[in-house]
Design a protein that fits this description.
Helix content is 38%, strand content 19%. The chain is α+β, with helices and mostly antiparallel strands. Strand 14 and strand 15 form a beta hairpin. The longest helix is centred in the first third of the chain and has 31 residues.
Length: 938
């Protein structure tokens, strides 16, 4: 009895001892392993502990504490200058410190000008001048930390690094200040960090818990990785969707660094990763960086870690394919771009499978040692780095291989505001852009549709982006239509897929900005001799009110993206506006489908001044008309002009909703459309009065097609179904679409391919019928000759004879080769209101394992092309072509008085696929009028 009585007491004692040991671990490690063992420091410079009240690594610093310490050292140290360069969405300040010797800081403007000359050799008089600058000038080293808010340790390492560089009196630190101008950006994503630290604080107990499964380590949705809109800012470096990234890039283009460090964390059971990377490696990266400097920095980095016996590795999972990371931005600008990945412990400590306990102080120490090691390498090879930097930029100005792209042309025709948006993003990156001053004959052209070479006359106003400029690798990396991986990378990817080990690709396979924007763009391999002017700034598109006092009303063309803002504003103010279902000709002028009609007899209080303001603000001409009788097409007083309704929008969210998918949709509503919307937690839908809304959006979820069924439950699914039947517009995206198409739900008549394998031939017959009426072609030979079944029909017949089990096995194998971020050619239904303002085709960015089948009565607005012309850009295996060709990607169907609209893919992927975002805008703004039966308010 005594033994059992005391056993719980002994267990409690052991737990207390264990907890005390873990609590002391960080402090004991700090005493035994100081950040810089032999450092000597200026006593006049405050340590982090003196200012913040805790030792670095004891706990994560909050944003305000980071700012306080950086400001303190800027005031105390003659080696530190502090700069504020912007704010986050939640209005937290973005700042960085520049550290160097007194002499360098006194001459910082001259140093910056010299580095600018190396960055743009056209500013130099000779190679000798470049050599002299390389000999005497310090190099620019830039270190940035915590772009992911839940990756904590690097920000605290930045604080310790600032102290070391500002207060250190040892020879190594003195040499670093002499040889380098060092930029330290301690926190790129303050909103995410503060959100994450608040969660950690909420869930931390009395004593640190080393169990990685406990909630203070996992935290709760939406975690802290993303910014306010939950964007992954480390994918935003060329898309520039977010204000933080735009501020970073604007600031960095003024510094032209030769070393660019991007510091991260990864899973807590890992060790430490740094370059070099593995294949695929983007061929636009400067080979001097890839093959010369990265290995040299890695070698000296490894020696620094070996001094402590720390574990690390390179190459295993990180590749250099996608150009949208921070470290990639540096590499494409000819800096030595270095990625750090430290095992994270979420600000406390973590017990690992091998029995060791990793403390927060250790993680901070690893980042600090990494930064110091890279700075030492940069300082030691300062002159050689500067010389190679200059030499690379010089070669970009003149050296072209035969058949190499010489320039990009971007043509602003009807949708000028979208082109303007793209050009503004490129100008923010510091790219030189010219505008043709007259029409010109362009030769050796290729489009992203794969057609050419060809010649044609392009209009005055065409934007010209020559590649004979210092940023050639970066320009190519973000604009090129079809980046290609080397065969070795393809072999490794295919082998991994066949073995069932999954993809080796860390990112999407393609991303081209012109394709994503859906603009008219060309490349040319011909030397340029075009009358043009440098684009100094991007001017707003002009618009005006023509015939401001008409007798009948006003017409507004629906071709430019900015028209949606006029529609939004007029509906929000309560005015009655309509949109044409069919094209028409009025007084000799052609008007396309979607043209907005404002009848004066329906808007007797509409002020002319408002229309003038809207035309000027959005660059759209508003045309006053004096009669409603057309030459062809519907008259303006008839029933072909659909009454529009202001969208009252609800967006579903919750812990199982895909973070980035939800973020892009939230951002689109809030920052792009700038329209009021409600965000509904799916856990509380039973209490929601859906009568307040006429548009409901289901973003993608984590998991598969059945996840929404679990999240919503039968009661809420029924509630949503009844709401749709009463006249609601339900928009579902990616896995949200897969949920509605799942046959077990009975929600949509669109079908998942994997669930209709035995009926595919019937769906393909429907596709053929659809193609016959969308594009009527008279083939007299086939009419009067004898018809025979072609090979495609024979294949369908053969497949229909296979067993369902065999069809399932084949489909499962084809799914292994799913498109992973590929632009695919999508044919649009040009007469459908969802396609208003669009052309006949649009590239759709596709990353999904779901393929969809559709037939009447479903209206297929967007259908993937046939295998022969399906791929626009990116890695698309033959198996994927076979499975996804001619499947549906955008559908609309009636359900009672309402409608269901499905998007197989995110139409606003990472907030930059404006080509498909326009269809999303149509769904939201036109949907309640065009697609539903709303009771007339008599």
């Amino acid at each position: 009895m005594t033994r059992f009585t005391h056993l719980p007491v002994m267990k409690e004692f052991l737990l207390i001892v264990s907890s005390l040991v873990l609590c002391l671990a960080s402090g004991l490690f700090a005493e035994e392993h100081p950040f810089y063992p032999d450092g000597t420091y200026d006593a006049q410079i405050s340590t982090p502990e003196e200012v913040l009240g805790f030792a670095i690594g004891e706990r994560p610093a909050r944003h305000a504490e980071v700012v306080r310490y950086f400001k303190t050292l800027a005031e105390q140290s003659p080696y530190v200058e502090l700069y504020e360069y912007g704010n986050s969405y939640e209005n937290r300040g973005l700042l960085y410190a520049v550290v160097s010797s007194r002499k360098n800081l006194e001459n910082l403007s001259a140093i910056n000008q010299d580095i600018q000359k190396l960055a743009d050799p056209r500013l130099l008089e000779s190679d000798e001048e470049a050599q002299e600058i390389s000999r005497k000038s310090p190099a620019i080293a830039w270190l940035q930390y915590s772009i992911h808010g839940d990756e904590l340790s690097s920000t605290d390492a930045a604080i310790q690094l600032l102290y070391q560089l500002a207060a250190g009196t040892d020879q190594t630190t003195t040499d670093l200040r002499q040889n380098l101008v060092i930029g330290i950006n301690p926190l790129l994503n303050p909103d995410g960090r503060e959100r994450f630290l608040s969660q950690v604080q909420q869930w931390n107990g009395r004593e640190p818990n080393p169990d990685g499964q406990s909630i203070q380590h996992t935290t709760v949705w939406p975690w802290g990785r993303g910014n306010h809109y939950l964007f992954d800012l480390n994918r935003d470096w060329f898309t520039l969707a977010n204000i933080e990234t735009r501020a970073h890039v604007k600031m960095l283009t003024a510094w032209n660094p030769q070393l660019f460090v991007d510091s991260h964390e990864m899973g807590g059971y890992d060790t430490y990763l740094f370059p070099p990377a593995r294949e695929p490696i983007n061929r636009n990266i400067n080979p001097r960086i890839t093959w010369k400097w990265i290995p040299r920095f890695a070698e000296e980095h490894s020696r620094a870690f070996d001094e402590y016996g720390w574990s690390y590795y390179t190459r295993e999972w990180n590749d250099d394919w996608y150009p949208g990371y921070g470290s990639s931005w540096g590499r494409y600008h000819d800096a030595v771009g270095i990625l750090y990945e430290q095992a994270g412990v979420d600000g406390t400590l973590l017990k690992r499978p091998d029995g060791t306990v990793l403390t927060y102080q250790e993680t901070v120490h690893h980042h600090f040692v990494s930064s110091m090691a890279n700075l030492k390498t940069a300082g030691e090879y300062r002159e050689e780095l500067l010389h190679d930097y200059y030499q690379s930029r010089k070669e970009y100005l003149t050296e072209f291989d035969r058949g190499e792209t010489r320039a990009y042309y971007i043509v602003p025709r009807e949708n000028k505001s979208r082109v303007q948006k793209l050009i503004q993003k490129l100008k923010t990156q510091g790219i030189e852009i010219y505008r043709a001053t007259n029409d010109f004959k362009a030769e050796e052209l290729k489009t992203y549709w794969g057609k050419g070479p060809a010649s044609q006359t392009l209009p005055a106003g065409t934007y010209i982006i020559p590649l004979a400029q210092p940023l050639r690798p970066f320009i190519n990396s973000i604009l090129e239509f079809d980046p290609r991986m080397v065969n070795k990378a393809l072999e490794q990817e295919r082998e991994s897929l066949l073995k069932g080990e999954g993809t080796t690709l860390y990112e999407v396979s393609t991303w081209s900005l012109p394709i994503a924007f859906g603009v008219e763009a060309y490349t040319t391999t011909k030397s340029l001799e075009i009358n043009s002017e440098l684009v100094e700034s991007v001017e707003n598109v002009s618009g005006q009110l023509v015939n401001p006092e008409p007798k009948y009303g006003y017409l507004i063309r629906y071709n430019d993206d900015n028209i949606v803002f006029i529609v939004r504003d007029l509906l929000r103010e309560g005015y009655t506006i309509r949109a044409s279902r069919k094209p028409f000709i009025l007084q000799g002028t052609e008007y396309d489908r979607g043209t907005i009609l404002i009848r004066l007899n329906e808007n007797d209080t509409l002020p002319t001044s408002l229309l003038k303001e809207l035309a000027a603000e959005y660059g759209i001409d508003i045309l006053g008309i004096d009669n409603g009788l057309t030459e062809t097409g519907p008259d303006l007083g008839g029933g072909e002009f659909e009454l529009l309704y202001y969208p009252k929008i609800a967006l579903i969210t919750g812990p199982q909703i895909d973070l980035t998918g939800f973020g892009s949709m939230w951002y689109y509503l809030d920052r792009e459309l700038k329209i009021r919307h409600s965000i509904l937690n799916y856990n509380r839908l039973s209490d929601v009065d859906f009568r307040k809304y006429n548009v409901l959006i289901l973003p993608s979820t984590w998991g598969g097609s059945k996840r929404y069924a679990d999240l919503l439950g039968k009661e809420n699914i029924q509630k949503i179904s009844e709401w749709v039947g009463d006249g609601g517009t339900l928009i579902a995206i990616e896995n949200g679409a897969a949920f509605l198409a799942d046959t077990s739900q009975g929600f949509s008549k669109v079908a998942l391919r994997r669930q209709k394998l035995s009926e595919i031939s019937g769906y393909m017959d429907a596709v053929q019928r659809e193609m016959m009426w969308t594009k009527v072609i008279i083939d007299s030979a086939s009419i009067w000759g004898e018809g025979t079944s072609g090979p495609e029909e024979e294949q369908r017949q053969e497949k229909s004879e296979k067993s369902l089990e065999k069809l399932w096995e084949e489909d499962e194998e084809l799914r292994l080769f799913m498109p992973r971020g590929v632009f695919m050619n999508t044919r649009l239904h040009p007469e459908h209101w969802l396609a208003f303002g669009m052309g006949e085709s649009v590239p759709v960015h596709t990353y999904t394992s779901y393929a969809y089948l559709s037939q009447e009565p479903v209206e297929t607005v967007g259908r993937l092309s046939s295998e022969s012309d399906l791929r626009v850009s990116g890695l698309l295996w033959p198996e994927a072509k076979e499975r996804w060709a001619q499947t549906a990607v955008i559908t609309r169907e009636r359900s009672g008085n309402g409608q269901i609209i499905l998007f197989a893919n995110d139409p606003f992927f990472r907030a930059y696929t404006y080509g498909t975002a326009r269809i999303l805008a149509n769904a939201i703004l036109l949907g309640p009028g065009f697609g539903t039966s709303v009771p007339v308010p008599w």
